Known about the structure:
Layout (H helix, E strand, L loop, with lengths): L3 H32 L2 H9 L7 H23 L5
Amino acid sequence: MPAPRADGRADRRRRIVLAAALTVGVGLILLLGVLADGRKLLHTAAGIHPAMLAAPLLLTLASYAAMSRSYQGSRRRPAAA
Length: 81
């Protein structure tokens, strides 16, 4: 059984990597917004009907739910020898 101290280091490392990945991801999205033509972007966004976003949003959520369910199933089954 690993020492609690070693496990704590691994958890801390995971949190740091996650925070760094989120920071980079949000930064890249913000950079795209800054580099885009703001007026044209707002004009295009204003023309989008909210109902037209329902299908992509629902399909994205369904995809994440399916992936989550799949990962849960694979973690419960023992590895094949």
